[in-house]
């Protein structure tokens, strides 16, 4: 039953969005604020996943929202508005990143063969998550650092799927990659983050978070 | 179906996303029951998803929303309300009024007068000519003019000074100069009239 309720709520949201989009197209431009409000954080996070710099990500997010407004007439109802919006944000951030790329060095993990198998490096037991863990700013910072250390293709997929809760299909659409690629990258991202965080969160933060040189198993 | 550890690791993500078929899922659960390492890997991956899925991990910079809305506002076309037509009409009327006023004032300052400076009364009187100015009536005369009446209010000065102070030349003693002014004035009028008839 709860699943049915959730589906009905989702349907209600979609219908409401459709009505908003129709009215915006008819000239009620101020309704666009209402349309994008639930997705503002997601748009920023999508840009941040690619650009890794708050100022650049904010600028890209603003530009993406503005582009979405200007091209609302091109939005097709068969796609979800949130996916379409995030896709614009991803494209905007990627375009900016390409411009910066001459000076940006990719982390080693991005060069790895995606098809190769991944073996966990660490088997530290990490069953419990203390509910107050995220209250600590330094823990949030450790998580952000660990995420930031992933290669871009893993980071993008992980942020859209696990942080923004997009479905695997929507993640694939937003990034313009195949569903199997999303699954492969997602597995690697999750296991790499577990390897980075389990020793600290399962025990203490006394162990180094970064991979020891030469010990990468992939 | 028996699964090896390496196979389990490959399917951890699919297991957590509910993407495995029932047979594979059962085999994996079997393996996990007897493998401490794989259970640790699965628990860790699940914790990663839970931690990063928390809203607090998706923080945006302070003021992000306000700045976004401002940028949108700048990028949106201004909407024309019902009063737009009235505003436009009023603006047009104000513009017309303004141009009329400007036209009038420029005509006052720049349009040629009917009489030129040279045709003005007293203009042909030599400015260094010594004259007698009578303050009562504001008239100036050549010394010895018979029409100087109020001898108590006389003042000697040059014709230039008298003209600057607003004295008018006596039409009798300064007749010669005034007649020259009149002739010059007539010529000026004729020239102006001709210019009006044929601007080319």
Describe this protein's structure.
The complex is a heterodimer of chains A (218) and B (200). Chain A is mainly alpha-helical and 218 residues long. Chain A has 2 domains: 2-100, Orthogonal Bundle (Rna Polymerase Sigma Factor, Chain: A); 108-203, Arc Repressor Mutant, subunit A (Orthogonal Bundle). Chain A has helices spanning 2-25, 31-36, 40-51, 54-70, 81-100, 137-148, 152-163, 168-175, 179-203. In chain A, helix 3 crosses helix 4 and helix 8 packs across helix 9. With 200 residues, chain B is of the alpha+beta class. In chain B, a hairpin with a 4-residue loop joins strand 1 and strand 2 (139-142). Chain B has a 4-stranded mixed sheet. The model of chain B is unreliable at 105-119 (pLDDT under 50). The longest helix of chain B has 27 residues, at 84-110. Among the domains of chain B are: 5-57; 117-197, DNA Methylphosphotriester Repair Domain (3-Layer(aba) Sandwich), CATH 3.40.10. Chain B is built from 7 helices and 4 strands. Classes of the chains: A mainly alpha (218), B alpha+beta (200). At the A-B interface, helix 3, helix 4, helix 6, helix 7 and helix 9 of A face helix 1, helix 3 and helix 4 of B.
- Secondary structure tally, helices of chain B: 7
Helicity range of the residues of chain A? 55-70%
Count of DSSP-assigned helices of chain A? 9
Number of domains of chain A: 2
- CATH homology-level superfamily of the largest domain in chain A: RNA polymerase sigma factor, region 2, helix turn helix motif
What fraction of residues of chain A sit in β-strands?
under 5%
Question: Low-confidence segments of chain A, ≥5 residues, pLDDT <50?
Answer: 204-218
Architecture of the largest domain in chain A, according to CATH?
Orthogonal Bundle
**Structural class of the secondary elements of chain B?**
alpha+beta
Q: So what's the CATH class of the largest domain in chain A?
A: Mainly Alpha
